[in-house]
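Re: that chain you flagged

S.,

Sorry for the slow reply, it's been a week of failed gels. I finally had a moment to sit down with the sequence you sent. For the record, here it is as I used it:
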Amino acid sequence: MNRFIGFYHIQLKTKYLLIGLVALMLVGSSAMYVQGYNKQKPIFEVKTSEPKIALTFDISWGNKTPLPVLDILKANDIRCTFFLSGPWVKQYPEIAKRILEDGHEIGSHGYRHINLSTIGHEEIVSELSKAHEIIKDVTGVEANLIRTPNGDYSNTVIDAIQSQNYKVIQWSLDSLDWMNPGINTISSRVISKCKAGDIILMHASDTCKQTDQALPEILKELKAKGFEFVKVSELLNLEGAN
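Prediction finished late last night. Pasting the structure tokens below so you have them in one place:
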């Protein structure tokens, strides 16, 4: 009986591992398809020899993870870019205001958390405008950077967003913190793969339960490697944004 239970647990762990690998493969293949199919591209990184990187956080849900993340960034004197969804800003205005007060940059993460490639030009503009007005009303910021929900884009999406004088920001290094793969997995992935000009994707939504625990080691080690943390807009001021 004990052997059977032990075997069952091994099978269960293997099943979870396979599920994670399949999810990662699907995300990767979807991203490759999107990149290959569309001529219009968001900004993934900046080609530069300067050791500057942009740490970014998406927030759409909750109020428990953002505060520890902000505390860690403040203790390390780091400024970065937060992409905030309109409804989240409306629900947690004090946290949105603190993000700004702490010196961080605020961008949009859209209104509904849907794939914008599934709707038309006018509806995309409407989604962007609703989020823009909420961010402006709460923080006073006229956002001009957006990370689309799920990183989804198409030619139509980018055309619609650019028509509103926004820039579409993707990422070149995904921390995978959205998968909750383990604190060491998140930190070692970012530390080992980071290069000059990277835009690093992290999350401060409550669904990401290991981000704040991985963050101190990431900041410490990347600083030790000589990287300078800057906001996305500052990174874009360097030549070669693509």
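What I noticed first: The radius of gyration is 19 Å.

Talk soon,
D.
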